[in-house]
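Q&A log
Question type: sequence-to-structure
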Amino acid sequence: MEHRNKKKSWRQTVEYLHVHTGLRYTVTELCALFGRSKQAYYKYNSERLSSELARDTFALEFAQSVRQKIPGIGCAKLWRIYEREFNGANPLGRDRFLSLLYENGMKLRHRPRGIRTTDSRHELPLYPDLVKSFIPTAPNQLWVSDITYIPLLQEDGTRAFCYLTTIMDAYSRKVLAHEVGDSLQTRYSLACLKRAIAGLQVNHDGLIHHSDRGVQYASAAYTTELKKAGIDVSMTQTGNPKDNAQAERINSTVKNELLRGMVFHNINQVKEAIGQAFYFYNNRRPHMSIDYMTPEQAHMQSGKIKERWVRYRRRAIEKLAMSEGKKENGNENLMEYDGNRLTLLPHEEALRSSISVQPHAGI
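Response status: OK
Response body:
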């Protein structure tokens, strides 16, 4: 029996020559070079087109079904999910998959940023930023939290809001807990924190909770709960959202991807949609910052994870470590970077230490 790839090769050669010789030769003439008939050539083309149509239809229907659940998920992430779940049985290249989606109007447009929800105008005690030069190397070393709003369209046509608090693991990007409330009262954020703490099943010595300086996070009830669980309190020192970038990022993902285009009329609808969205986010959505794994997969690991995009925060930390080490070498102090944190060493200890900057998984 003739090998299938050999059968394909002559037909593909005929097709190539027919197009690239300016159609100077007929299909019949080109087929004759291989001792084949034009009927055999056209039969193969018909079968191939039928197979490609079925494959494209399957891929498009898959993408549309996921988009119905997660309206704002991008085409590149849809491809990663398709590749992981179906590409063995229905192989389709990335470029063809993306072209198929673009041709069918599935390319997304970016939406503008929304309003802020942080109120740091209070007299409550504030805490230092413990994570400026910290990069986690395992789950439950650093949690980040933030609050965002979700609009509600009321029966009379006016708009109201409910508020979502999330706590996410900075290493794995897994959403550990969330809470939806009808106001910005501290009790909703506190309920979210208690749920996250209840889910701790391993030793969490050294765990840091990082947030903005909002009144909810600075409240006595919230900080007391953290301290009672042995969790260090860390807060941003300015109003710059980059100081709590990961938590801000999950807010953007929620509104511009997971809930994109959805209209809610009451808080119960929001709670149901958020629960489904975060299950998808944790268990099916690939993440560029954790080598296209899902957060649930990454949460089972430790150590460096390959990133698929440039993490400017990590680069800045490593650059600072190197520049400070060179500048201070031979003077009173020296900066050492151990892959997690920058440390200022006494001159005597610095003389006995060698500066080593290791690439590390970013936040």
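Response note: The beta strands are 142-153, 159-169, 175-181, 208-211, 232-235, 333-337, 342-346.
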